[in-house]
From TrEMBL:
This is Poly(3-hydroxyalkanoate) polymerase subunit PhaC. Residues 76-115, 145-321 form the Poly-beta-hydroxybutyrate polymerase N-terminal domain. The keyword Transferase applies. GO terms for biological process: poly-hydroxybutyrate biosynthetic process. Residues 1-37 have a biased composition (Low complexity). SUPFAM superfamilies: alpha/beta-Hydrolases. GO terms for molecular function: acyltransferase activity. InterPro entries: AB_hydrolase_fold, PHA/PHB_synthase, PhaC_N, PHBC_N. Keywords: Acyltransferase, Transferase. Residues 1-68 are annotated as: Disordered. Its EC number is 2.3.1.-.
Amino acid sequence: MPARSAKTSASQSSPSASASRSRGAPKTADPPTRRATPPGPMPAAIARHAPPTVSSTPASAKTPEVALPSSATSFTDSLDRVAMAATARFTGNVSPAAVALAWADWAMHAATAPGHQLNVFKAFAAIDKPTSSHRAKAGGPPVADRRFRDPLWDQLPFAWWRERFLRTEDFVDTMTGEIPGVDRHHRDVVRFMARQWLDMFSPSNFWYLNPEVISAVRDTQGQNLVNGAQRWWSDLHDMAAGNAPGAGPEACKAFCVGHDIAATPGKVVYRNAYFELLQYAPPQTQTQTQTWREPILIVPSWLLKYYILDLEAQHSLVRYLVAQGHNVFMMSWHNAGPTARGRGLDDYLNAGLLTALREVRRLTDNAPVHACGYCLGGTLLAIAAAALARETPEGSAPGSGDASGGGNGRRAERDMLASVTLLAAQSDFSEPGELGLFIDASQVAYLEAMMWRQGFISGEQLAGTFQLLNSRDLIWSRLMHDYLLGKPAQTTDFTVWNADTTRIPARLHSECLRELYLNNALATGTLKVGGLPVALADIRVPMFVVATERDHISPWRSVYKMHLLYNGDLTFALVSGGHNVGVVCEPGHPTSHHRVATRAAGAAYRDADEWFTATPARPSSWWPAWQAWLLAQGSGRSIATDWPPANSLCDAPGAYVLER
């Protein structure tokens, strides 16, 4: 585990700042909008985007609730929702109808496919095929299967058990494979469920079949099993208290939000009911005028706390950018409660991202902004850029040119945005990977019924889904490491962040599932903002897109589809690691690598596999490559700004990130 950074403690400027320094602060009511300084004139290009009531009325007071039925059908509709919500409580929010349809589709087609049956029979017969010890050692497990990496698995009889299990996996894959007529989504659901059941019986999960555990029992006289039992009991206590296993209050003391993580010095310079805007201090924080490069606004996902990008000092992308001389701003989303059930995608766009963009420009002399979005925050940023790109220059008719290089309504975008960066963010959701297994019309209806009852979906309810998607590493490998081998718990900055879950308003989550995943409205040009459709092809500012090789949430080939939707200069980087670890990869990391290449506007399209083959891997982190790209897209303009900002609200990390 890397050494922890020195604790950072800034002086508190107000009682609210002092309160924000203790983790677990009570949930606050929706606050009114507050600015650090009196507002200047709003740029005309985005005046139309700023809701006039945001600054005075909490959003929960003016947004409608999620899909409340009309008076004519309210009773029957509510009755259906109550029944579905009750069912969802007993099924783990999984639709039994969706599961039954998938299995029925597969079973009925498999029963009438003799060719498929023959292939299944051959795969079944191969399970007991004799394997020599040499072949077992040479074959080994698949590269991605971490359960059998230890060399002890190459010895008999363990190699025989391993090979038999791997051949059983091949049999299950053949049985649940392609069958003419089976819906692809149904096939994937059946295969996923079959593999989950099979993984339960992996020899690595049983101490008497696992050579690593047997060796540990021999070396420790069984103490590893005693330690594992203690870990299991401790995890039960954590879950009973509503905490993630291994992430109780005692374990998290070593990483305090605002001191050890989320500790880059800064100020909260704006707050409304949706987010706080953090501005980070330059390396020298004495009171003086600082000269900055063009500002960077980072838009995190509302699925997680923002400080995934500001962990310990060596893992902090924010701290790295500040050290390079950038004026960095970060949005910290409000942790929504039941009263925020009516906040939707338009609200998070207008009162959220576009308002943050306006405030950043106001604080930086209306400089164009390098906007960066992570995960769904990146999807929201792509929507915002497309909406800005369609705007008509003030004082000119649609389609007329203007001297700033922006005919056809491009001035609003070019004035506000210097570039767009998307980190592990999808724009085409036609192939969302294994996450799509949990998204169909029936499943979404059950989730909506559950959210209708409580007004939001919580991080704990989403965590189980994400663990299942990567169950080998997040469930079964943990079982062996923690309970069978009895390894001591290692609390890291990632562990604490992962346990610090959020709540998502019901309407926002429902609209994302239906509009983005089910309808793929953003990629098809049917998503509407302000009553008008937005198209990613309208964006003209340069774009940098990052994907990760082992991403099970935003698969890299899905992220790569931005090449089909955006026509401008696009730099695409594929980095090692998964959805989070791949993005948070500091310079000098010994095992990381990345591929990066630029497609010029108007160049021919290359498919993902061709791009991968033609683009060589480079060692170390992608951060320096991105930072150099940012400098190349900037105008070179230096911006003088006073630090600290006048009348800031409180010290970073603010109050919203501390709400549990």
